[in-house]
Amino acid sequence: MDMLLSVLGPHASMFDGRLGHISTVTHHNPTHGPPIDSQPYRAVPKSREAIDVDTKSMLENEVKVPATRPWPSPIVLMPKPDGTVRFC
User: Fold this and answer.
1) Mind listing the pLDDT tens digit for each residue in 7-49?
2) How far, CA to CA in Å, does 73 sit from each of 11, 21, 29, 50, 82?
3) pTM for the whole thing?
4) Are residues 54 and 80 in contact, defined by beta-carbon separation less than 8 angstroms?
5) How many Å apart are CA 71 and CA 23, to the nearest integer?
6) DSSP letters of 2-53?
7) How far apart are CA 58 and CA 71, in angstroms?
8) Alpha carbon of 58 to those of 8, 19, 21: distances in Å?
9) How far apart are the C-alpha atoms of 31 and 47, rounded to whole Å?
10) Which residue from 74, 14, 70, 69 is spatially nearest to 47, judged by alpha carbons?
11) In terms of Cα–Cα distance, which of 70, 67, 68 is closest to 55?
């Protein structure tokens, strides 16, 4: 445990609970073959509201950017123990 804290300690500001953009790593999705047509999962109005709020927050904080590629990524909301939902 002490070793883990010694590694994470200098970077504590990254774990303050706020959303944000980290530019130290560039992520690439390999794409092979044609895109697969995938429709969004259906969401009840309460879930749709949570999706809209989380999406707006992530766009404002530059955590994600609007998609420009034809490969879709469906959204899933998972319940957390405290009753809120996790955007996946």
Assistant:
1) 888 887 777 777 777 777 777 767 777 777 777 788 888 888 9
2) 30, 20, 12, 17, 26
3) 0.59
4) no
5) 23
6) HHHHHHHGGGGGGGSS------S--------SSPPP-PPPP--HHHHHHHHH
7) 20
8) 24, 7, 9
9) 30
10) 74
11) 67
